[in-house]
Amino acid sequence: MNAALLKLLRRLVQRGNLTVIFSSGEKVVLGDGTGKHATVRLTDAGAEKAILYDPGLKFGEMYMDGRAVVEEGDIFDVLAIAKSNGLEKAATFANTIVALGHVLRQQVKSRLPVNRNRYNVAHHYDLDGKLFNLFLDEDWQYSCAYFHPPGISLDEAQRAKKRHIAAKLLLQPGQRVLEVGSGWGGMAMYLAESSGVEVMGITLSEEQLKVSRERAARRGLSDRVRFELQDYRTLQGQQFDRIVSVGMFEHVGIGNYRNFFRKMKELLKPDGVMLLHSIGQVYKPWATNPWIEKYIFPGGYIPALSEVLPPVESTRLLVKDIEILPMHYAWTLRAWRERFVARREEAIKLYDERFFRMWEFYLASSETAFLYDKHFIFQLQLSPSLETVPVSRDYIEAKERELLEFEKNRRRLELVAV
């Protein structure tokens, strides 16, 4: 048994019910016996040593490689027990030095002039589309849903998210909209159909570009919605009435925030409105979890609002509204994780067992980040103008009611057509 790892685990797991089976065969029960029981087995001494000295990176790697095996419960249960106790209790002098090394590398990398955006996006978003079809909603919305009212389905919550964002954009027929990070095209098509606007969606994912264009063509929207393989930084000679960006800001990188908002102001008309939807954190994180950065979102960074607002202010863009959605992504991730795990065999056929465990770990660890690490979603509404946005928020709910009627009428027409 690795005595140093056992000491760390005893210090960490004071509440909950976790059994750890070491590679020697020795079994240790940790916690106060409350909550759901989970058991994890470490298969070899090398895995134990790796987790001890670099838990942020190596526990996920050991799970992917089948060297940390969950024998009772699932990986979410194990991570929930650890995080609910406070991961800072697992800090030692050695693993703190290793963690600081991860922070330093990411801080330096985020400020290098080398443009790796295309590679970073392709690493995640150019995976086989069949993978995302395993767990996303019917419109392939790969960002936080809006569970309003509570208890609605994932499909309903993703429609509510699009409705909520469209309402905040204050759209008028004939306006030109830029979507920065257009995904598989669902948001752009919703805005065009519901509000009579023209939308240009830009992405760095060739796979998403292909799917988006095919979807727009099938829905007869190619004349009003177009998608381009385009970096926002090199977009020139155009201005838009509205800009929307959902789930893309996490990939901008902390060293690029000032330039990002300068570019958005350049692209936005003087009476325009921008809506930015992003994950945020309560405190400055300084770096992304090293496992997530290495395997899931290279170059990604989830900021505190205190890191976002100063670059906004430097551009003289006016903050018109900030809304915090504290639990909606936890509910979204749970729905994704349950759907993904339910189709385990299909995921393994697409890639392999290790890939399945990697994505299960990603979805589970992301869910626990919102439950225990105080992650949240913020929606930041910006404008150069004092007059464009109403002085009260009543318009949001009123517009959502209109959009809901549009959705109901459209579904009725679709049923009649069938």
TrEMBL record:
Record has Transferase as a keyword: yes
Protein's UniProt name: Cyclopropane-fatty-acyl-phospholipid synthase
Family label: Belongs to the CFA/CMAS family.
GO molecular function: cyclopropane-fatty-acyl-phospholipid synthase activity
Single GO biological process annotation from the record: methylation
Listed SUPFAM superfamilies: S-adenosyl-L-methionine-dependent methyltransferases
InterPro entries named among the record's database cross-references: CFA/CMAS, CMAS, SAM-dependent_MTases_sf
Enzyme class: transferase
UniProt-listed PANTHER family: CYCLOPROPANE-FATTY-ACYL-PHOSPHOLIPID SYNTHASE
Lineage: Bacteria, Pseudomonadati, Pseudomonadota, Alphaproteobacteria, Hyphomicrobiales
Keyword Metal-binding part of the UniProt annotation: no
The organism of origin for this protein: Sinorhizobium kostiense
Alphabetical keyword list: Lipid metabolism, Methyltransferase, S-adenosyl-L-methionine, Transferase
EC number: 2.1.1.79
Source organism, top-level taxon: Bacteria
